[in-house]
Amino acid sequence: MKDRSISVEAVEFFREKIVKNLLSSYQEADEKNKNVMVHMLYDFIRSFGQKNRSGLWTVGYKKQVMEAEKKGLPKPQPQKDHHRLAGTGFRYVLDNPEIFLADTEESFEIFYRKCEYLDDVIYGTRDEGKALSKFSISRGGNGYVYQDAVTRYKTCFENGKIKFYKPKVGYITEFPKELDYFDGISKEHHKDFWKKYTKPKNNLYK
Fold this sequence. Notes:
51% of the residues lie in helices and 7% in strands.
């Protein structure tokens, strides 16, 4: 029995009744309307529960929890960051329907894993969320980004802007292995996908 963190029925409905029915419209749409569609699908992905599957917190959020404990206050709610950029990230499915939407059990399993992958969240703070937002093109970007889902966290980690903590493990001194490219097909394949939607920009911290 496979470990299922999302209802199989919910994923089947999403795949068969929503994603497949949108596919031809997506393929015919311009970039602006493709972005509208993937944002609609992102809302469905969020409905799967926004689970902290990686178990990662930022050190910023850990400090907030510690401060609350010292003051005898309730544990603060984290900023739940969909660190894999589920909107743009779902284009990987729509750009590769022969892999994710074929009528086979193997294809369904890859689709299911992709949904789990995109639904993962990191527990962080509002300020950290603002720092990460610099890496997305907010106006007229149509889902394109300045840095992809993995690179933006590496950049923040290497510049000391974000550090990580994991309950029952402790502080993370190296870039977390949990933050990596989707390996349902191959990591290189997924990296190539992000190259298509990335428009590099220098001086993102200035």
